[in-house]
Amino acid sequence: MRLLISLGILALAALVGCSPGGSSNKETSSTQAVSTPGDKAAAAPAQPTRLCVIDVRTDEEWAEEHVAGALHLPLDQFREKIAAVVPDKQTSIGVYCASGMRSGSAARILKELGYTRVENLGGLDDAKQKVSPSRGTP
């Protein structure tokens, strides 16, 4: 049953995708705005970076609580399934877990696979602070 649920989530994620353009449906959107330090000398204010947020915790942890709008891809399935979930290696991706350890591993995997815009958001509480759904999703 867990396998069917995971496959269903991955299929939905593949349809919605984490693309720089994202989706206009806030319920299925998998991109979030995250504040990033901008160049203070720039004339125009920096726009927040659109981020595909991925939770790499277990199914049980995900079911208990997760960042709104995040995708779920457990670390033990990450390397095998990330390309189907996020095919564009230029997509900005933020990964999180419970404490930052598993998300650090996921970030390393992404970099090994050629993803260029990767951020370890740390633990769940850290990710909630960094990811701001109130700033809008595409």
Structure description:
The chain has 138 residues and is of the alpha/beta class. The protein has a single domain (2-34, 48-135), classed as Rhodanese-like domain (Oxidized Rhodanese, domain 1). The protein has helices at residues 2-16, 59-64, 75-85, 101-112, 124-130, and strands at 31-34, 49-55, 71-72, 92-97, 117-123. Strands 1, 2, 3, 4 and 5 form a five-stranded mixed β-sheet that branches. Helix 2 (59-64) links the parallel strand 2 and strand 3 (71-72). It starts with a helix and ends in an 8-residue tail after the last helix. Residues 9-16, 21-44 and 134-138 have low confidence and may be disordered.
Topology, pairings included?
Blueprint: H1 2-16, E1 31-34, E2 49-55, H2 59-64, E3 71-72, H3 75-85, E4 92-97, H4 101-112, E5 117-123, H5 124-130
Parallel strand pairs: 2-3, 2-4, 4-5
Antiparallel strand pairs: 1-2
Helix pairs in contact: 3-4
The percentage helix is 25-40%
Largest sheet entry: 5 strands, mixed
Count of beta strands: 5
| Weakly predicted, low-confidence segments | 9-16, 21-44, 134-138
Task: Provide a compact summary of the structure.
37% of the residues lie in helices and 19% in strands. With 138 residues, the chain is an alpha/beta fold. The N and C termini lie far apart (32 Å).
Keywords:
138 residues; alpha/beta; Oxidized Rhodanese, domain 1; 5 helices; 5 strands; 19% strand
